[in-house]
Fold:
Amino acid sequence: MAVDKPPPAAQVQFVSPRPSSRCLWADGQWLWRDNEWVWQEGAWLVASKTCRYADPLFVWVPGAQDRSVLFYTHGQWYDVETQLPCPPPPNC
Structure:
């Protein structure tokens, strides 16, 4: 989707001690919702054996009259074998 402006700089977040060896840290990130950037806090998640996370993608595309357009694709979890979307893992 096309967005009006790039996201702000990432926010600094305190990372608590790892709650369990089965958990991994997912960094916080900016999400585009209702025509504005909304910060999603990072969290400890239960590691998945079959799913991985693809980061959000930002691409500037040349437009008409020397104006570029920023396109954003949100990050998502996907199955490593089928490449189909997975539900996000639960918090630890």
